[in-house]
Amino acid sequence: MLLQQLELRRIAIDLVTPFRTSFGVESRRDILLLHVTTDQGTGWGECVAMSEPAYSAEFVNGAELAITEHFWPALTAGGTQLEAADVAHRLRRFSGHPMSKAALEMAVLDAQLRAEGTNLHAYFGGDRDRVPSGVSVGIFDSLDQLLAQVQAYVDDGYARIKLKIEPGWDLEPVRLVRELIGQEMGLQVDANTAYGRSDIEYLCRLDEFDLLLIEQPLDEEDILGHAQLAAASNTPVCLDESIVSLQTAADAIELGAAEIINIKHGRVGGYLEARRIHDLCVDRGIPVWCGGMVETGIGRAANAALAALPGFTLPGDISASSRFYARDIVTDPIVVEAGHVAVPTAPGLGFEIDTEFLDSITTARMFLSA
Ligand code: OSB
Ligand code: MG
């Protein structure tokens, strides 16, 4: 395909309820969407960078600059033909910014699949037409509020619960939620790097709650600390922030720091690298699951297609669009039925844009030509 134009579109979209994690709270999202025009049609990508550089070093204003000043010029230089699989290679000399690179690859992939009359589910070759849906539950001001929210998600039919934890909000919330949902339902926790190596003994006290996993308790760089925790605790250690590439995944597994991996395309630079990490984990016997970054219907559709691959043996953070947004920017938002979401089969990544609503929440548009 020949890239012709890139539209960068910023949208402002309210969350149905504030989402608090150990790194901050968000009530409204400021999202960068990409719309690429090629000689064979157009495609959409969603950049998962958040407003602040807190989950990782990327942030939405920085992503826009990286794409406009560096990545789009590099992709279009020379005007040569390219496919989605070439995007990461062409951007390889640029360090970092995986979410920005991933968003560009995603837009090109959507355009390519639409042009070929196929979709991401077929492209990946996942063997399921629906995937189990888990929900990520934020930190609350009170335990009563937490329990009411968890009960509402159980009533919605979610297949497993993930609790955000931090020092001061860990053993007690987990104990009460385990009591509320019973022993059978899948329960896991995510600390988003809020603990240190000196907390390893304390974190082992989570073992009594029979959790599916503990996600990223320590710093992104603390691979040794995660290996020490994995050796000390019965709860499987899962890495999120630490896994930024196929290489870091392979090394963390080898070092015993990653007993399970959360795969997020934005964190690793694209869906194609995400797929390679999946394949590696299948080869090494490491379970994976699909993480989320509070995506709109664009990213949610693509995540469901990724999660249909056979190595995704644990429920993903692929909740209904309505878990975060009262109205989605697609006409066919992800819904949860009997604890599962259907893998989209619409052309491309698997969604159609609700243009009228999208326009109504658009705050800025910029057009770059090739
Ligand atoms: O650590 O998995 C995380 C949201 C934003 C940034 C990081 C994380 C999360 C979530 C929510 O836990 C996942 C989702 O349902 O989209
Ligand atoms: Mg996480």
Provide an overview of this structure.
β1 (3-21) and β2 form a beta hairpin. This protein has 13 helices and 13 strands. The chain has helices spanning 60-76, 84-90, 98-116, 120-124, 143-156, 171-181, 200-203, 223-232, 246-254, 265-268, 271-284, 297-307, 355-361, and strands spanning 3-21, 24-38, 41-47, 130-132, 134-137, 160-164, 186-190, 214-215, 237-239, 260-263, 288-290, 340-342, 362-369. With 370 residues, the protein is of the alpha/beta class. The longest helix has 19 residues, at 98-116. It is 36% helix and 22% strand. The mean pLDDT is 98. The strands form three sheets. It has a seven-stranded parallel beta sheet. The two termini are 12 Å apart. It folds into two domains: 3-117 and 354-369, Enolase-like, domain 1 (2-Layer Sandwich), CATH 3.30.390; 121-342, Alpha-Beta Barrel (TIM Barrel). 2-succinylbenzoate binds next to loops. Residues 190, 192, 215-216, 240, 262, 291 line the site of magnesium ion.
How is this structure best summarized?
This protein is α/β, with parallel strands linked by helices. The protein is built from 13 helices and 13 strands.
Number of helices: 13
Question: Regions with pLDDT < 50 over 5+ consecutive residues?
Answer: none
| Average of the residue pLDDT scores | 98
Class by SSE composition:
alpha/beta
Spell out which ligands are present: 2-succinylbenzoate, magnesium ion
Level-2 CATH architecture of the largest domain: Alpha-Beta Barrel
CATH class of the largest domain: Alpha Beta
CATH homologous superfamily of the largest domain, by name? Enolase-like C-terminal domain
H and E string: EEEHHHHEEHEHEHEHEHEHHEHEHE
Distance between the termini: 12 Å
CATH level-3 fold name of the largest domain: TIM Barrel
- Name the beta content range: 15-25%
Radius of gyration: 20 Å
